Amino acid sequence: MNADRVTGARLAAWWVSTITRTAEGSVARDRRAEVASDVHDQLADAGRRGALGAGSRAVVGRVVRGVPSDLAWRVGLELRPGRFAWHLRNPSTAITTTFVAMVPLNAAADSAGTRARQLVDYRVPLWVATDILGVCILLLAMLALASRAWPGWTAGVESFQPGSRLERARRCATATLGIAMAGSAVFRFGALSLVGGVFWAAFAAALVTYLALLVVTGGVRLLTLGRYLPKVAA
Q: By C-alpha distance, which of 167, 179, 161, 20 is closest to 89?
């Protein structure tokens, strides 16, 4: 089979593997099996009609259109009370996700105070939202540290094992980015602005580290699409 004709299947397999990577084992397996079955049926039908290339492009479209619902599904899984202990044992996923949401809020809040006049009226709610997310990140980080001192909080909870040392370092760097940005936002003004400056310096150092790790592992990540070679009856 021509490789470019299964691009959609590879993309779907890569995306569902990524979105379920740190989910509960049984839930992740069910989701992957469901997506694999849907993609196989769609491409098999396209192959019987002699339109496998069009079927692959249709799968790509389904993956792209389904990203918001997939993200909402994953967030819903992680917000269950039963997952809190897992996040204490493995805080990097929640910290990184909250950090991704915090970045545009922080940028908008900065712009409202300096450059973007159209955002001036929203300066206060933007900074309040940024501070709330920052406090959530810092609180989770402190609770995660406390759970190391009191292991009973996370007794019986499995620990996520990254696939390599580079991945472990990258997860650590992204979590550090989130914590550093949270601290710089929360302590940016007032008597504790010096603390905010220290957090900002830590953010700059973590960003340089993360970019270096990204350069080292970027080629490998792109090549992972080649691992997903579905068997489709043409």
A: 161
- Report the pLDDT value the prediction gives residue 1, as an integer from 0 to 100: 43
Token pair, residue 185, equals 């936002």
Angle between helices 165-186 and 193-223 (to 10 degrees): 150
Residue from 71, 78, 73, 76 nearest 92 by CA? 78
Residues 6+ apart with CB under 8 A from 54: 46
How far apart are the two ends of the chain, measured CA to CA in Å?
8
State residue 4's pLDDT score: 43
pLDDT at 234 over 80: no
pLDDT digits (tens, 9 = 90+) for 64-100: 999 999 999 998 888 888 889 989 998 988 999 899 8
Tokens 């996923």 locate to: 93
The C-alpha atoms of residue 28 and residue 144 are separated, in whole angstroms, by 24
